[in-house]
C-alpha cells in the first residue's frame, strides 16, 4: 500500500491581501514564496507562504478576495491548522503574539502544549513545540531560525461523518491510527512535519465557505507516477476524483471524502523554483505561460502588495 508522507499544503480564504501578508510574513515570519493568481479566478491573488525554500509540508496558501462573505468554521472543513516550532521557543512566541496584539490561549492535547489563536480573518491556528523537522533557515523581522516556524505540525479536521474521514486517512492515504484522547482521534504519517491529523469527534455546526475558512487540505504524492496510482485507487473506491490538473508548481487532483472535506493530492515536484530562483521567491508577480500575455492587465487590476517588516519589529 502506498502512503502519503503527510500534508503538502493547506489553502484558505481571506479578504485583504496586504493584511494577509502582514500577518503570515510580518508576524509569523513565514516567507512569501510565491505571488501568483488564482488560475480559476485570475482577478484574485494566490499567495503562498512557507519555509525558505517552499518545501512541501510547510506551505499555506491563500485566495484573498475583498468581496467574499465571512465564512463559518464547521463540518466539512479543516478546523485548525497546526504549526511546529522549535523546542524551547514557546516563550518567544507568547511574547511576540502579545506584542502584535494577537490573543491566544494555552491548551494541552496528547501531552503537548499548544498556543491557539486566530489570524485577522478568523482562521484558527496553533503552535506546538516538537524536536522533529529541519530548521527553517529563513529570517524576517524579529523571527530568526532558532525560533522560526518549521512547517505544519498537522491539522484538526471537522467531519460530518468522522468514521468515514478516518477510513480515508487510514485506508486510502495510509496514515496510522494512534488512538483517541477525549474528543479527538489522532492519525500520524511517517514524515517529520505535516504528519499529525486529529479528527474532532464532538458535534459541530455545518461549515460555510468564506473568508476565515480553509478551502482544502492537500496530501503529498512523491511524483507523477504515484499521483496517477492514487487517482486510479480513488476511482476504484468510488470517490470521483477530478482529472489531474497542472498547477505549475505541482500536479493536483481533488475529491470530497465522506465527511465533506475537500481533499487534494499534490505532487512534491517540480516546486516553486521552477519559474524564479530560490533567492528571489515571492518578490514579483508570477504567471503561468498561458497567461503571460495578459501580464499588464493583471498588474493593473491587482492591488500592490509586499512582504514588509512591521512597526513592532522596527522599534
Automatic annotation (TrEMBL):
Instruction: Output the superkingdom of the source species.
Output: Bacteria
Instruction: Return the Pfam families for the record.
Output: Glyoxalase (PF00903)
What keywords does the record list, in alphabetical order? Dioxygenase, Oxidoreductase
Q: Name one GO molecular function term.
A: dioxygenase activity
Q: Which residues form a coiled coil?
A: none
The VOC domain sits at 6-130, 151-268
The record lists the membrane-crossing segments as none
**What PANTHER family does the record tag this protein with?**
RING-CLEAVING DIOXYGENASE MHQE-RELATED
Please give the name of this protein: Ring-cleaving dioxygenase
Q: Which organism is it from?
A: Mesobacillus selenatarsenatis
Amino acid at each position: 500500500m502506498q502512503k502519503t508522507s503527510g500534508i503538502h499544503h493547506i489553502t484558505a480564504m481571506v479578504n485583504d491581501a496586504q493584511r494577509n501578508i502582514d500577518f503570515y510574513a510580518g508576524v509569523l515570519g513565514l516567507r512569501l514564496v510565491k505571488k501568483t493568481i488564482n488560475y480559476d479566478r485570475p482577478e484574485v491573488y494566490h499567495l503562498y507562504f512557507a519555509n525558505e525554500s517552499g518545501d512541501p509540508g510547510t506551505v499555506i496558501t491563500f485566495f484573498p478576495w475583498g468581496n467574499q462573505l465571512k465564512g463559518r468554521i464547521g463540518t466539512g472543513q479543516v478546523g485548525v491548522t497546526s504549526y511546529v516550532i522549535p523546542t524551547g521557543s514557546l516563550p518567544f512566541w507568547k511574547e511576540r503574539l502579545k506584542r502584535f496584539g494577537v490573543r491566544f490561549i494555552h491548551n494541552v492535547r496528547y501531552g503537548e502544549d499548544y498556543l491557539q489563536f486566530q489570524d485577522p480573518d478568523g482562521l484558527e491556528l496553533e503552535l506546538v513545540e516538537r524536536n522533529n523537522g529541519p530548521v527553517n533557515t529563513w529570517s524576517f523581522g524579529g523571527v530568526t531560525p532558532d525560533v522560526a516556524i518549521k512547517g505544519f505540525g498537522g491539522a484538526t479536521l471537522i467531519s460530518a461523518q468522522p468514521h468515514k474521514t478516518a477510513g480515508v486517512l487510514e485506508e486510502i492515504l495510509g496514515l496510522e491510527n494512534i488512538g483517541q484522547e477525549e474528543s479527538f482521534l489522532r492519525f500520524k504519517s511517517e514524515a517529520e512535519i505535516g504528519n499529525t491529523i486529529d479528527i474532532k469527534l464532538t458535534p459541530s455546526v455545518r461549515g460555510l465557505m468564506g473568508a476565515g475558512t480553509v478551502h482544502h487540505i492537500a496530501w503529498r504524492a512523491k511524483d507523477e507516477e504515484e499521483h496517477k496510482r492514487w487517482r486510479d485507487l480513488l476511482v476504484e473506491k468510488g470517490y470521483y476524483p477530478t482529472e489531474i490538473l497542472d498547477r505549475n508548481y505541482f500536479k493536483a487532483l481533488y475529491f470530497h471524502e465522506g465527511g465533506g472535506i475537500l481533499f487534494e493530492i499534490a505532487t512534491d515536484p517540480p516546486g516553486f523554483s521552477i519559474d524564479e530562483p530560490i533567492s528571489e521567491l515571492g518578490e514579483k508577480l508570477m504567471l503561468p505561460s498561458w497567461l503571460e500575455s495578459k501580464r499588464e492587465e493583471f498588474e493593473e487590476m491587482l492591488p500592490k502588495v509586499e512582504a514588509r517588516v512591521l512597526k513592532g519589529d522596527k522599534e
